[in-house]
Amino acid sequence: MKTFPLSDQIVLPLAPAIEGTIADYLQSIAQELYVSLSTNCDSANTGFPQDLFWHEDLGRNGVKSDRFTASIGCVPTLQYQYVSPIAHRLATKLGLTPLEICQRLQPLSHSVAVNPRDRLDLYCWYNDSGYIYFQLAPETIAIWLNYIHDLPLDIQLNQDLSPASVNIALYAHDRCCSLLALAQTEKLVTISDNWQIERSDKPINARSCPENHFTAALASIFEEPAEQRLIHTLMEVLDGIYDRRSQLQPVRRVAASGRAINWAKLTIDLAESWLEFHRHCRIFGDLTRRNPRLAIARCELTAISRRYLQVLLEHYLGVRLIDNRSNI
């Protein structure tokens, strides 16, 4: 299947929900296209077709609010990709083929001016079937992981009944805590009272790992499939939790793609991904001497996983964790 670039590398603002950020971008260029073509298309309705992107949903305090639902879906690969069939939906409104829609979107695509430290760099292309793909650049993964590591959390309770199957998530959370405690005992990192990594205790080569050791370490370090699967699962978790129109607005039931969120499954997926990472990606022993940068980065990935396992268990499944150090 042939592929064609939609644009040169696209720059979008940094946000917890990458899915929603891409959806906002797609909405802007799709609206430009619709406005430019609708006057020449007999089959097009007057005005932008809001049903392509919006639906009513109960927001906070039961107040109805519009929420963006562009058709974005996370591709289940290890390449940090998102795909959108939005060209197919526009095609039915404008009387064109999906491929023609993609070709017409191409000159409209643009980047957003953002601070270099707060940017998402994405490669974007479409295939001859009219599906649009977005792939995150490696440096974007590094910046995003560092961002969600320190992201302030203000999540309202949205508790479902907790099924017995979340026991695996409780086990994974406990193992994360044990591993982080061992890392501190081994003087690899220093752990705060809320299980965040405050600093590295292991000497790092400043030339290979400058000021922010975490971002520098992550830029090109996670090459194992288990590491990549865990990061991919974290992307799905953050896309599920955070609204695409507000960086700290919790999503209750529906993701940016419009699909219902199964919080128990999402929690179990994160637990299983971290346990697989733990089985295949060592931290201690010879690795701390040969490659302390990688060992520390894996500790950071464990701290992030522990944090969002706790968020999902306590705020979405109603499971209270009893641990005097486990506050978010």
Describe this structure in words.
- With 328 residues, this protein is α+β, with helices and mostly antiparallel strands.
- Helices cover 43% and strands 13% of the residues.
- The chain has ten helices and ten strands.
- Strands 1, 2, 5, 6, 7 and 8 form a six-stranded antiparallel beta sheet that branches.
- β7 and β8 form a beta hairpin.
- The longest helix has 25 residues.
- The radius of gyration is 21 Å and the shape is elongated.
- It starts with a strand and ends in a 12-residue tail after the last helix.
- The relative contact order is 0.16.
User: Structural class from helices and strands?
Assistant: alpha+beta
Quaternary organisation: single chain
Query: Regions with pLDDT < 50 over 5+ consecutive residues?
Result: 54-69, 203-217, 244-254
What letter string, H or E per element, gives the SSE order? EEHEEEEHHEEHHEEHHHHH
Number of strands: 10
Which range does the strand content fall in? 5-15%
Number of helical stretches of at least 4 residues: 10
Radius of gyration: 21 Å
Query: What general form does the structure show?
Result: elongated
Q: What is the residue-mean pLDDT, rounded to a whole number? A: 78
The major sheet is characterized as: 6 strands, antiparallel
How far apart are the termini?
46 Å
Helix content: 40-55%
